[in-house]
Amino acid sequence: MLTEQSHRLFGLKPLHLVSLAMVAMALLLGISAMRSSITPYVSVAEARATGRNVQVYGFLNDQGGYNQDGHFRFALQDEQGQVMEVVYPKGKPANFEQAIGIVAIGYYDAASNTFQADDLLVKCPSKYQEQTAQDLAPQP
Fold first, then answer.
1. Amino acid 1: pLDDT
2. What DSSP letter does each residue of 46-90 carry, written as one string?
3. Residue-range domain boundaries for the chain
4. Any idea what DSSP says for residue 4?
């Protein structure tokens, strides 16, 4: 004869065990989804080696221009000195010429030998840094 105690695992009722299993599964699915949505920062060499979405931080190697398809293109140089061509279909970002750094988000297309950027983050000098420098300048 089975007693109520024999139907329990670790002293928990079946309903509690099912609830714990559902919470554990939800946590695992959430962690898995977060990992797949994170876009890591990589070098130019790493971007060329992988086919997935990445972020490449670098500096302008030229002022860029438009290709025959009307997409903005420019050369990006990473911190190791490697250069790759970036193609951005949305047009030249504002303050592009003043950029002290660029983050290109996208993937490397080996067929065209270019980095296809879905988004660009332009890192410009802060207007507050300029203002502070002006405030600290000696007054005549």
1. 45
2. HHHH--S-EEEEEEESS--EE-TTS-EEEEEE-TTS-EEEEEETT
3. 4-37, 41-127
4. G
What is the CATH code of the structural domain delimited by 41-127? 2.40.50.140
Task: Give the number of other Cβ atoms within 10 Å of residue 114's Cβ.
Answer: 17
Q: What is the pLDDT of residues 66-124, one digit of tens each?
A: 998 899 999 999 999 999 999 999 889 888 888 889 999 999 999 999 999 999 999 88
Q: Which residue do the tokens 């203002």 mark? A: 131
Q: Residue 17 to residues 5, 22, 131: CA-CA distances in angstroms?
A: 14, 9, 61
Q: CB–CB of 102/121 below 8 Å?
A: yes
Q: How far is CA 90 from CA 20, 95, 112, in A?
A: 47, 15, 18
Q: Which two tokens stand for residue 122?
A: 């332009």
